[in-house]
Amino acid sequence: MKISNSAHSYKSKRFFRVLLARKTVILCLIILAAMAFFAIFARFIAPYDPYKQDLNNTLQTISRDHLLGTDAMGRDTFSRIIYGTRISFSVGLASVLIAGTIGMVLGVTAGVVGGIVDTIIMRLMDAMMSIPLIVLAIFLGGILGKGLPNVMLAVGISAAPSFARLTRGQVLTLRESDYVTASTICGSSRFRTTVKHIIPNCISPNIVLMTMNLGGAILAEANLSFLGLGINPPLPSWGGMVADGNAFLRMIPVMAVAPGLFILLMVLCFNIVGDAVRDALDPRLRGSL
């Protein structure tokens, strides 16, 4: 037990040492932590109610009262950006969880059952992967309709094929392992062997893929909202704010530029952190960021 705990402690220390080895990653983690703080305590940080309209102060430029101006409804842009952080985090986290769950179920089923089931599942995943994620998300968004749950589901389903392929590959490798063979020889059923030995060893690579796909999920939601297929107004969505500000781009560029920069910053930080997590868990795939 002492040896096991020592090995676990060593792996944990090595993980954080590799993860925090780059100053860029530390900076991105600080930025994401600040955004998460804004999302949790938006009610206390935002200077104005993001839903309250003030038609006497529409399309205001940057000022002391409104740090990033106001929109066409007189709502404070800065307050809406802060509240929009909640939407981005919610969609990003929920979407990758949905994608990971669906992908792991399909991947494990295909890898364990094999045969015609494997062929059908993987050909379907190949067909979905042949379509760019954002195009597939737009298609599913048009079918499911607008709204936060539907956006999460559309983005999650669109991202599921990569998780399914990863999990199937892991299952095909793991089922040839000595401990899986020994478990089968000892009389363990295929279901028990899968649950006890195969699925736990598939979780780690899927967690890495989740962190790497967070940025893409957030960007997909922003694109859907920009096209009018995402979050229902008056919920503040960064993509929807960019779309609203696009009509006033020459007159008040900050309306579109500010939420666009926040989208860029969050996606970039998640991508860099995801790359660092991958490096920390598998040094053979170490990147250069």
Descriptive key words:
mainly alpha, 289 residues, disordered C terminus
Describe the structure.
Helix 4 packs antiparallel against helix 9 (190-226), helix 8 (178-185) packs across helix 9 and helix 9 (190-226) runs antiparallel to helix 11 (254-281). The protein has 289 residues and is mainly α. The chain has helices spanning 2-19, 23-40, 42-45, 77-113, 115-129, 133-144, 148-174, 178-185, 190-226, 238-246, 254-281. Helices cover 74% and strands 0% of the residues. The longest helix is centred in the N-terminal third of the chain and has 37 residues, at 77-113. It is elongated, with a radius of gyration of 22 Å. It contains 11 helices and no strands.
Topology diagram in text:
Elements: H1 2-19, H2 23-40, H3 42-45, H4 77-113, H5 115-129, H6 133-144, H7 148-174, H8 178-185, H9 190-226, H10 238-246, H11 254-281
Helix pairs in contact: 1-11, 2-4, 2-11, 4-5, 4-7, 4-9, 5-7, 6-7, 7-9, 8-9, 9-10, 9-11, 10-11
Give a quick precis of the structure.
This protein is mainly alpha-helical and about 290 residues long.
Uncertain spans, ≥5 residues at pLDDT below 50? Answer: 285-289
* Number of DSSP helical runs: 11
Shape: elongated
Strand content: under 5%
Largest sheet: none
Please give the number of β-strands.
0
- Can you give the helix content as a percent range? over 70%
Span of the ends, CA to CA: 37 Å
**Topology pattern, helix = H, strand = E:** HHHHHHHHHHH
Rg to the nearest angstrom? 22 Å
Structural class: mainly alpha
The overall pLDDT average reads 85
